[in-house]
Amino acid sequence: YHNRWVNSQALVLAGLSASSPDPEKGSIGRDPATGALTGMMIESAAGIVERTIAQSGHYTQEMDRAAMARSIATLNSYGVTAFLDAAAMQPILAALKGLDDRGELTAWSVSAMPAVEPSFMF
């Protein structure tokens, strides 16, 4: 499945709680014993948090670059020097280009951009 992992603050900002229903074609991760939210957003549930972030006015391209740099540094720490992003959207492509333009891209990157935004997200 396609998923996103978010922290508790993201869940609060998105207005999600243990009583929130799962969206069509997706699910909100819950602890099987307690029903508490785990932060895992599967398929269309990821779109709930991504929309909240996009609409917040707080999100910046520099945040994307920093997140990509951190992710790539984690890959590098395990000896990974190349990766494929199978469904890179424009913000990720821009972040990778920004890192490359600054000489800060420390892995080979192959990115496949879908012709249309994946419907399972939104």
Main sheet summary = 3 strands, antiparallel
**Structural class category:** alpha+beta
Percentage of residues in strands: 15-25%
SSE sequence, one letter per element: EHEEHHEHE
Strand line-up across the major sheet: 1-3-2
Mean pLDDT: 90
Describe this structure as you would to a colleague.
This protein is an alpha+beta fold and 122 residues long. It folds into two domains: 3-56, no CATH class; 61-111. Helix content is 39%, strand content 19%. The chain has helices at residues 8-13, 45-56, 61-77, 90-101, and strands spanning 3-5, 26-30, 37-43, 82-85, 108-111. The strands form two sheets. Strands 1-3-2 form a three-stranded antiparallel β-sheet. The protein has a two-stranded parallel ribbon with strand order 4-5. Strand 4 (82-85), helix 4 (90-101) and strand 5 form a beta-alpha-beta unit. Helix 3 (61-77) packs across helix 4 (90-101). The radius of gyration is 16 Å and the shape is elongated. The model has no long low-confidence stretch (mean pLDDT 90).
